[in-house]
Amino acid sequence: MKIKTSLLSMIIGSAISMNATAAPGNVGTINFIGSITDTTCDFVGEQDGVQGNTIDLGTYTVAEVNADGTGVKDFALVGRKGGTICEIGDAGSVDISWVPAAGAWNAAGLVNTGTANGAAVKLMDKTGNVFNALNDTVNYVKADAADGKLPFKAQMVSIAGAATAGTVISAAKFSVAYK
Fold this sequence. Notes:
By secondary structure, the protein is α+β, with helices and mostly antiparallel strands. It has helices spanning 2-22, 62-68, and strands at 42-47, 50-52, 73-81, 84-85, 93-100, 110-111, 119-124, 137-141, 149-158, 172-178. The longest helix is centred in the N-terminal third of the chain and has 21 residues, at 2-22. The N and C termini lie far apart (71 Å). The model is unreliable at 1-22 (pLDDT under 50).
């Protein structure tokens, strides 16, 4: 009987020990996103008539960036399907959502992964509203998208007037949901 009780105690003790050690580091959350649409388009960035996945924010002095930020650069997302521009239908709209590729927004915008310290990229919608953790989606209707181009703006800015010389490199992921 003594052997059975010891064996039972070891089994219960092992189960409690395994359960206690499994909890903190072995749990997490996975987020799944998607959309269902009648229209599927391939989107690419466009700046000054040139399409690609890079927006040139220009070259500025430390003083210009630390003063009020750099000049605002206009760019657009352009959708194409089989060589034809994707237009927003008369009764429809699209939601464009932005998520920083670095994982989080900082106080000024998109995190800089380049060599300049104290700098960020401020990403804005068609009217200049800044994207951030509380505002990451904008809605466009047909009147907003001339020739199928969804307009946006970007600007290099300093964080608390403390930018230093170096490169500014940021990235954001976008998703387009037709409604």
